Each structure stands twice: as C-alpha cells, then as structure tokens.
Amino acid sequence: MASGMFSRGKDRTVSETAATIEDQIAELRDQISSLAKLVAQDVADGTESARDRFSMFRRNARQAGSDASDSLEELIASGEEILAELTARYKDTGREVRRTVKDHPFATLGAAALAGFVIAAILRR
User: Residue 84 and residue 82: Cα distance in Å, rounded?
Assistant: First the structure.
C-alpha cells in the first residue's frame, strides 16, 4: 500500500477538514451578521435616547428662557414703580423745603449757618 501524499485516506481527511472549516466559516458569518444587527439596533436605540434627551433639554431651556423673560419683565416693572415713587417723593420734598424756606427765612439761615459750622468743625479734625 502506498501511503503517499495523494492517497485516498488523506483526501477524505482533507475533505472532511475542509467541510468542517466551511461549516465554521458559515457559522462565523451568521454570528457576525447577528452581531452587526445587534450593534445596529444598539446604535438606533442610543440615537433615539440621545434625541429624546436633547428634546427634553431644548424644552427645559425654552421654559427657563420664558421664565427668565417673565421674571425680568416683573423686575423692570417693579424698578419702574420704585423709580416713580422716589421721583414723586423727591419732588414733594423739594416743594416742602421751598415752602419752609419761604415761611421761615431766618430760621433757615440759622440752620444753614449751624450746619456749616458743624461741617467745618468735622473737617478740621
């Protein structure tokens, strides 16, 4: 019996090995295909999740902007009211001072002189 390289016994072993390798390659292809489908699904799920989070962030930012705008408008209105009140008080105080000076000119001069002496004494120290 010849046991050379090209004998029938080895042909069967080679063909069986080739068939096994082909089966393994086919199985690997199926597994790679399944893995690619899973990765694609994960990417799609991740993209949807990111899109949802971005939409929620955008809604929150719009709401915060709206709230800030409302608060700013309220603050401006409050500031305008305070300014109007201070202006009215300033005008009333000016009128009261003028009336007091008119009614009591000598007392006003005495008070001004006294205030001048007090300020001068403070500044000398």
Answer: 5
